[in-house]
Amino acid sequence: MIIKFGLMFLINIMLGGCISSKGTVKSNEDVKNYIRDKYGFEINILSEAQVSTGLNTPYLVQRADEPKVEFAIFVKG
Predict the structure, then answer these.
(1) 28 lies in which domain range?
(2) Which CATH number is 11's domain given?
(3) So which domain of life are we looking at (predicted)?
């Protein structure tokens, strides 16, 4: 449980830096590629908000190699 929240916090903070250096996220593949390149593991995207909140687009994801670990990612843009 602590690992789950730790990963959620860490990825939420770090993903913002990636997006600002590359521009806006164009697809789910951008999110998958960033997590794979930055953290070294694959993710499955479980859901994406149909309507962006304007500032952030939320994704619910899980680790591909550890399906019990689910966390949210908020992408700027």
Answers:
(1) 2-76
(2) 3.10.450
(3) Bacteria
